[in-house]
Amino acid sequence: MTEPLLKVRGLKIGAIAYPPGERPVAIKIVHGVDFDLEAGKVLGLIGESGAGKSTIGLSAMAYGRGGVEITGGEVWVNGRDILKENLRSLRRLRGAEVTYVSQSAAASFNPAKKIMDQVTEAAIYQNKFSKSEAEERAVELFRKLGLPDPENIGNRYPHQVSGGQLQRCMTALALCPEPDLVVFDEPTTALDVTTQIDVLAAIKEAIAATGVAALYITHDLAVVAQVSDHIMVLQQGKMVEYGTTDQIINAPQEEYTKALVSVRSIRHEEKTPTDTPVLRVENITARYSGTTFDVLKKINVDIHPGQTLAVVGESGSGKSTLARVITGLLPPSDGQITFDGRQLAPALASRPIDDLREMQMIYQMADTAMNPRQTVGTIIGRPLEFYFGLKGKAKQKRIQELLDEIELGDGFQDRYPAELSGGQKQRVCIARALAAKPKLIICDEVTSALDPLVADGILKLLLNLQKIEDVAYLFITHDLATVKAIADSIAVMYQGEVVRYGSKSQVLSPPFDDYTDLLLSSVPEMKIGWLEETIEHRRMESAGN
Amino acid sequence: MKNIPISAMIGLFFTGLYFLMAIFAPLLAPYGMAEIVGDVWEPSSSQFLLGTDSIGRDLLSRMIYGGRTTIFIATAATILSFTLGSVLGFFAAVSGGWVDQVISRFVDLIMSIPSLIFALVVLSVMPTTVPILILLMGLLDSTRVYRLARAVAVDITVMDYVEAARLRGEKIGWIIFRETLPNALSPLVAEMGLRFIFAVLFVSTLSFLGLGVQPPQADWGGIVKENKEGINYGIQAALYPAYAIATLCISINLVADWILNRTTSLKGGRG
Questions:
Q1: Model pLDDT for residues B204-242, shown as the tens digit of each residue
Q2: Would you kindly state where each structural domain of chain B is located, as residue ranges?
Q3: Is B161 within 8 Å of A383 when comparing Cβ atoms?
Q4: Smallest Cβ distance to B164: which of A361, A372, A373?
Q5: 3-state DSSP call for residue A205?
Q6: What's the CATH number for B6-262?
Q7: In sequence order, which residues have a C-beta less than 8 Å from that of residue A536 and are 6 or more positions away?
Q8: What's the pTM?
């Protein structure tokens, strides 16, 4: 048997943590991980945030980001233990033998330089190719990655191409110096589903065509199932399970892997609409001041009491703007909103306090939605004090009730947001919204920033609370799996218009309009070969037309 | 307290020393402030530790009383400028729109006139009393504080928790004092140290030019002015207040640096 390209033995990685109000402590991020990667194969690293997957990925370049330090173990690349090498020889390795594709291409490209210069930089710097050879190779890669106008796209600046195209340019950048190994760090996470599928297909084809080996890091098992040969499941810096993609997806052994595979298995029976909706949005048209472009065009939707309307669409489709219009942060230029039988004033400032109380909002980033200088008790207690005048013991009692409702126990009242985990933070935000006894809660991408298992917990909690409190949700999301799990009715938005609207069963059953079809078929399924099937299916359809 | 770096310790020590001296001036000073007790520019002796000044007053006593005046004026002016500047800055940031525009452009207008020249013009028509000095310095300095407070608050007011408070229907007072201020406090406190130093320098400059604290009242800038002729004859009297101003400024700077370092650190900064 030949020596594997990448051999990792007993890898240990540590860092210094700075807990609020305490002295810095050394923590271990990765506790001894072993794996091999043969030339031309793809290994998927999967786990929740904090599992150490990016850290392991970067160790293939002997690099620790921020205060992260590799404390032990061996990393062999092409038969050399790179952890023992000095910076000079590491510099010859990075960008030549091993390259890296980051999550956010938009943040990683230098906006002041042309794409071509950045794509060919490493190859030229490492003396792998001359400038003209490198450019030729880059054009070839652009073509392989399916970028439009491959001869000239390199002359553009990063802001002149779309997010999905830029992510493909970054893949070209990584492949240009003919590396032996590419580390893909969540390359499609920041993209819309409809874009993700194209990028995923392009990456997969490019890997196959160049015969490069790859480490593919992601938190989405359905995505990694499409591209990798083997999968390693990580949890808190330890390996949970390692196996072929087929085995992990179809016959997981460990409990944790099983939970990951079966995530989003919430079943939710659709409720029938009532006669009087709690919120009726009629003919809403809106634009931001100083622009000449309508972000929302004649939107009509209803939300029924105790039910959930899911608004889906890709970024830029206007779904968050709809929330801003309903809350009064952005007065519409036309149309009207009826809430609980009353017509709502367009602007926030002119709405009576009861209208504000009955409509609450939960945000995507729980981190920024809570004042870091206030305790959980203050955060949840303020609406109680503000709307109901509760004080002292009565307030304390109600806060504790709310904390029980969101399944957080005693001792949370005096904690600060920085002392909570991501899921706990989002729960506190839910409690703050519930404290006002609202009729409608607007949930703006509330689970997008959370790990799949934690997000699942939040969705279950929301459904449960809906039963108890009989509150309606306007649920804004780009994730169709979430929609299937909790919606009663669905509105699909595209470029500021509702292209499809109705009960869940209506919207999700054929015949589809073009956009909904594209959206639905782009959601990765946890099935090997799904990517090829979908791409093939689309090709045949477009050939048939 | 163990985590305080040595430079900040030195700074804290000297700052504390000066402030204690200012507070307990009447107990510490060996002679009265305006009492003529000896010859002109006597050298230092066991009777007059720092010698005497241009008309025979004990220099140490004048230094102690002068420190009291200088530090009092600077402190009062800093407090005034901070209260006014930060409240206005937060108000402008939270209100936004034309309110912000009107206040900000007015502040720009004031800032476009060099503050020393502005102060000299005002003091040449107004009576030079301590309250007027404090008011003038406070108002002029508040424009700088306003700039910082507004810049910090603008970053904070776009956070979701401020939006959540607005959606709840909170009044502007709650948004300023409960949501914004606690999160803006650390950069403001650090700036306060720097502003205090500028106030010390400013009042000393004015007194040196004869438009600040009026004799027989003592202050450090005034002592330099009274004794500046002595430098020609190799007499140190004018340099002691200069040393005092320099050491006070450096020590407060050391403290302010330490606070700034703590609050702008990426490692758990504002937590």
A1: 999 898 888 887 788 888 888 888 888 888 777 888 888
A2: 6-262
A3: no
A4: A361
A5: helix
A6: 1.10.3720.10
A7: none
A8: 0.79
